[in-house]
């Protein structure tokens, strides 16, 4: 897949649970979900009475109109590439590429509705890596989905390392998904990132995720102090 910029594409609570192998106990932690974009993870958790999630993303500083414009400017091309290439991929959670793209669009619309109502609250924080406006160990768990490693061609190795150090500053545990780049190959940054963090004293594990979309095996990175 060829993308020349980071696109807006959201996932829901079930996808988050699968991507990061989130247990019921995990979901009771204080969670910061960074680069959350137009996900409905925050909304669905709140609808269950769980107000323990803070989503952080630079788009939360924008108006609804600007967010919608940004989404529309890239989504049609993304959908086209997914449908054109998707027949060669393995599908498990979705009935093919069209359903996957439709799901992403539906999640985006649900996010917009929630952001219109709750976007002024602290649960949606305008912030971006590698500098977050949170206190040291403010959270039990930090999640980062479809930014680090996915956009290896746009984000430097230094950016990855600085971002992970920042996530580890604000949370006791960090989980990053996926470890593949947009060609669905293991990112070339995984090994140097793992080596660097282990040398700095962190425990770093590659774990298989329960999330299967276009490849047979997805992995995430779990990092603890």
TrEMBL record:
Stated name of the protein: SAM-dependent methyltransferase
Organism: BD1-7 clade bacterium
């Amino acid at each position: 897949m060829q993308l020349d910029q980071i696109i807006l594409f959201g996932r829901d609570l079930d996808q988050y649970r699968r991507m990061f192998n989130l247990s019921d106990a995990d979901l009771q932690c204080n969670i910061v979900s960074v680069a959350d974009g137009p996900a409905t993870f925050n909304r669905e958790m709140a609808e269950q009475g769980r107000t323990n999630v803070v989503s952080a993303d630079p788009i939360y500083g924008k108006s609804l109109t600007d967010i919608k414009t940004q989404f529309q400017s890239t989504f049609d091309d993304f959908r086209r590439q997914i449908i054109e290439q998707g027949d060669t991929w393995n599908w498990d959670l979705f009935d093919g590429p069209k359903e996957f793209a439709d799901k992403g669009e539906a999640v985006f619309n649900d996010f917009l509705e929630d952001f219109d109502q709750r976007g002024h609250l602290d649960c949606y924080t305008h912030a971006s890596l590698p500098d977050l406006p949170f206190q040291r160990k403010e959270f039990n768990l930090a999640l980062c989905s479809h930014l680090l490693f996915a956009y290896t061609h746009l984000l430097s190795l230094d950016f990855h390392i600085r971002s992970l150090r920042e996530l580890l500053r604000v949370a006791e545990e960090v989980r990053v998904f996926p470890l593949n780049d947009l060609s669905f190959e293991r990112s070339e940054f995984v090994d140097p990132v793992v080596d660097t963090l282990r040398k700095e004293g962190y425990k770093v594990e590659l774990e298989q995720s329960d999330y299967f979309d276009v490849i047979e095996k997805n992995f995430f990175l779990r990092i603890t102090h």
